[in-house]
Write a structure and sequence with these properties.
A hairpin with a 4-residue loop joins strand 2 and strand 3. A 6-stranded antiparallel beta sheet has the order 4-1-3-2-6-5, sandwiched between helices. The protein starts with 6 loop residues before the first helix and ends with a strand. The chain is α+β, with helices and mostly antiparallel strands and about 180 residues long. About 5% of the residues have low confidence. The protein is about 40% helix and about 20% strand.
Length: about 180
């Protein structure tokens, strides 16, 4: 079980995330560009998940679009999960997060799972080196811990992406998924 953090530590973490908004890209290899066509990816994702494509098929389509020089992959974990007491209220946090992010859906794609232990975890693809644009439009992003996957698509990164995009037996990291929301 994770150690409870003081309010000062949580405030420092939120400030750190807010400071990322004005930070330079982390990778010298980041070249910019248009990145992933998020509308096309959303259509591909929706079609694949509704047709129950194999995880390999869906992820092959994603990796054919992904360019670490133009886009980035991030995970998020809700910092206050131990304060969640009700599944519906926890799902409402995710719903509101997605609504606040809607204005930048052309620049990102996100999947958020609410788990049986009331934890919320997500996977995000951004056009750009980091979630800066999301942090600018969604102040609730400071309630999550963000971690970059990659940028190179090694086996670890690919496994993590598959685990989020195509959970096995309705579970994520061994926990039953109670709700999944997708941006867009």
């Amino acid at each position: 079980m994770a150690e409870e953090q003081s309010e000062e530590t949580k405030a420092d973490a939120r400030q750190f995330m807010a400071d990322l908004v004005s930070s330079d890209p982390h990778s010298d290899d980041f070249k910019g560009g248009d990145g992933i066509d998020m509308a096309a990816w959303r259509t591909t994702y929706a079609a694949a998940t509704s047709n129950k494509d194999t995880p390999l098929s869906l992820t092959e389509k994603f990796w054919s679009m992904y360019d670490p020089g133009e886009s980035s992959i991030w995970t998020m974990v809700y910092d206050e999960a131990d304060s969640n007491e009700d599944l519906d209220e926890t799902i409402a946090i995710t719903t509101e997060f997605m609504k606040q992010t809607e204005s930048i859906k052309d620049h990102c794609f996100g999947i958020m799972h609410t788990l049986e232990n009331l934890q919320t975890e997500g996977l995000w693809f951004f056009n750009g080196p980091d979630p800066e644009r999301l942090f600018g439009v969604n102040e609730d992003s400071s309630w999550f811990t963000w971690s970059q996957l990659g940028p190179e698509a090694n086996d670890y990164v690919k496994k993590a992406v598959v685990e989020f995009m195509v959970p096995t037996d309705g579970k994520f990291k061994g926990k039953l998924i109670k709700d999944t929301q997708v941006l867009g």
